[in-house]
Amino acid sequence: MFNATVQRIRTPALKITQNCKSKDCHSVLIMIPHGRRCLSTSSCLYGKILPRKKPRVVHEIAGLEPITYADRMHFVPGLAKPRFPTWDRGWKDPTHYQSPKLEDMPLHKDKPCYIFSQRTNVLEGVRQALWLSKSVLIKGLPAQILSLAEDPANQIENQDERVQDAIKNSRLWDTTEPRPLRERFCPSLLHRLLHLCGGLQVTRPELAKRILAEKYSLAATWRRGEDMFQVRGQNGLLLNSMTPVPVLAGEEQIQSTADQALETFYPIAPTIDLQCTHVYQEKNDTGFKEGYPYPHAHTLFLMEMGNTPKLLPEQLRAKMVMFTFGNALARAQALYGKEPRVLEKPIVVQSVATNGRLFQFVVFQLNTTDLQSDSGVKNLVWVDEDQPLYEFAKVRPYIKKKVVKVPAGLSGYQPNTFKKFLALHLHGTA
């Protein structure tokens, strides 16, 4: 009986030595005679966090001045704590900076602004993005891009073999791990596919008039109804071009959008999941200086990396719609000014998003900057969703109940997905 009791007492001490290897911890255990625990000490070693005390509320009574111990220069029980004016150093010390209140900031405004950033996860997905950008959805890619994809003259020599080699390079040959990280193979695959597309520069010299930009900062502000919205922040890779992307929808199709009604999701507010702030700047900036030789946004590439993605496919497509809209709107306001109008020459921006296997394609055509009301001409969005480039890429075979379910290597390659990827890249070179 005594041995069992001693064993139970020694167990917490063993846990303490496993968690704490410092000399102070060891000395405390030596001071405990016969294995008895000092509860006041061992609880501190376990790192118990005491609850934070609530600050005392001091009530001010009009006409009564509290008696403080300021004159005595030390604490006196029963007397109130004195309040001294804030000491001014006379110079700005960055280590003791105190930000002003929101109401005192120079950019503070009474009217709030709802911001869409790269981490925004909107509840309604594409439907909410369509309402915010005053757009009409069209399933699939435009006919002009599909015709480029089906034309054999636009294909690379040994295209399927070289694309499969690019997939194997990123998924199988670039790692010694049984399951490579998505943060590694997703950008590697995208850059290899872009390198394959760039090989057509010999037959299409227009591809040399483009450049990839990374970590550029976008800002586009507009009014929708009675609220103000803004797309802001860094996002993905942007392929810029010297020449604008050709217009996809004709004048007749653009005018027909005036008769189409925008889909609503009442009773859910369209501002749900957007960041609401009163400190903002009404800014419209493409992210590049004036006179930049590649001023036209061509294709925006987004990557959703990580085994636990931050955005679901529906929310990822909404992000693609919003940032293509933001790039087009910032360019339109730089060309035509901030006055709302129907554009004489619409602006087209494309987007491609991938997680290393599935690809999402979006094409946005900005027809108008008059976004405040639901009536009139609307913008157009083409969406082609969930296009797999391949089914499996296994370093080791997947075996279940002694049966090979998925063999090692690449399987389930889909050539049509890369054809669409290549067609979007070649759009505007003919």
Describe the structure.
There is one protein chain. The protein is an alpha+beta fold. Helices cover 28% and strands 23% of the residues. The termini are far apart. Residues 8-24 and 26-35 have low confidence and may be disordered.
SSE topology:
Blueprint: H1 2-19, H2 23-31, H3 39-45, E1 108-116, H4 126-133, E2 135-139, H5 143-150, H6 159-171, H7 182-198, E3 210-214, E4 217-224, E5 227-234, E6 237-241, H8 251-256, E7 275-279, E8 296-303, H9 313-336, E9 342-354, E10 358-368, E11 379-388, E12 392-394, E13 398-400, E14 403-406, E15 409-411, H10 415-426
Parallel strand pairs: 1-5, 2-11, 8-9
Antiparallel strand pairs: 1-7, 3-6, 4-5, 6-8, 9-10, 10-11, 12-15, 13-14
Helix pairs in contact: 4-9, 5-10, 6-7
Keywords: Mitochondrion, Ribonucleoprotein, Ribosomal protein, Transit peptide
GO cellular component, one term: ribonucleoprotein complex
Organism: Culter alburnus
